[in-house]
Design goal:
This protein is of the alpha/beta class. The protein is built from ten helices and 14 strands. The longest helix is centred in the C-terminal third of the chain and has 18 residues.
Length: about 350
């Protein structure tokens, strides 16, 4: 038993990769290599994030389809798919297909709301229906119903040599229970709980106070969201929730790496001083240091105290060698300091 609390049960990581706009192939390959490394190190899960109309992963479902063929044990997740960009029925088909390829390892993370830069993209995304598209939680409910096997067509039967099903095919049994909602507000936390979803928290939450009023610190807000989620969830305290912070262990890092990591954290720290933007978003401070130092900081974090699993976010714009060092340090030093242990080698899906 760790000295400070209940052992961490599951540890994963999130990556967005590093991409060259003129040559995107190597960036996608590095993402897949990082996922393979995560499996070899014994991580429980690997997650990728959408980057629509940016130089990055615009189609994480396609990337994870490739990852299913290069791994055999590690869970694969999306954090998160913004459903404003998606047709729920078609996405349900893609998710089910990838889950079947993965042998039941897919963990889709979702969010709702208008796509970023909506006014600039809606004419291309929904040229005829932008003003009537439902971008609310109802879009998630449509996806969930399709994944669960609810009828999506009134036709069923044989037509010539083709057989038609009224539900999404392939049907991926158990996928509905592995869907997560990524929320930054108390309202989202309560809705995710009442809908029976799993809950992804990240390093940003929404301030619930009005401008001019004191804003609680990030961890206090996050803890309140986790409490609201479980209070609304049918499984109560057993409901799955994951914390996601930027955590950079320096064990095994070179002097140059340690200096760059610290500069990265220092440059991002000012945004944590007060709520940011019209949405009054509150950011967590990135953590950098030895695994011993990081473990002490996490044990003191009231948000971390409320979860039994984490998805640590890898920093943006680092080099591939940096990610190798960080993941290795997490698996070999930070995780054990938090009471977590890698999967036994016999359970890992390491390809020869």
């Amino acid at each position: 038993m760790p000295p400070h609390g209940v052992p961490l049960e599951r540890m994963g990581f999130l990556t967005i990769g590093t991409f060259d706009a003129a040559d995107p192939g190597p960036g996608h390959e590095r993402v897949l290599e990082v996922i393979e490394l995560g499996e070899q190190l014994g991580f429980d899960s690997a997650w990728v994030r959408h980057r629509h109309l940016q130089h990055g992963i615009s189609s994480p479902v396609a990337v994870l389809a490739a990852a299913t063929q290069r791994t055999s044990r590690i869970d694969l997740g999306t954090a998160v798919i913004p459903l404003g960009w998606e047709n729920p029925l078609r996405l349900a088909e893609d998710l089910a297909t990838v889950d079947v390829l993965a042998g039941g390892r897919l963990n889709p993370g979702l969010s709702v709301g208008a796509p970023i830069h909506w006014e600039h993209v809606k004419a291309s995304l929904y040229p005829d229906t932008a003003d009537v598209e439902d971008l609310t939680y109802r879009r998630v409910e449509r996806l969930l119903a399709a994944i669960a096997g609810a009828p999506v067509s009134s036709f069923e039967g044989v037509e010539g040599i083709e057989t038609f099903s009224p539900r999404v095919e392939p049907h991926a049994a158990g996928l509905r229970e592995r869907v997560w909602y990524g929320g930054a507000s108390r309202r989202s936390a309560e809705w995710a709980g009442s809908t029976g979803l799993n809950f992804l928290t990240s390093n940003v939450v929404r301030s619930e106070t009005a401008p001019g009023e004191p804003t609680p610190d990030f961890a206090t807000i996050q803890r309140s969201h986790l409490g609201a989620f479980r209070a609304a969830h049918p499984d109560g305290e057993r409901a799955r929730a994951s914390q996601g912070l930027v955590v950079i262990p320096t064990d095994g890092a070179t002097a140059d790496q340690r200096a760059r990591y610290q500069r990265y954290v220092d440059a991002r720290t000012p945004r944590t001083a007060e709520p940011q933007g019209p949405g009054r978003m509150v950011f967590a401070r990135d953590l950098v240091g030895t695994s011993e130092q990081l473990a002490e900081a996490l044990w003191a974090d009231v948000g971390f105290q409320a979860v039994r699993e984490v998805v640590f976010a890898l920093p943006f714009t680092f080099e591939h060698e940096d990610y190798v060092q960080i993941l290795t340090a997490m698996a070999e030093h930070l995780g054990p300091a938090l009471g977590w242990h890698p999967r036994p080698r016999a359970e890992r899906g390491v390809r020869s």
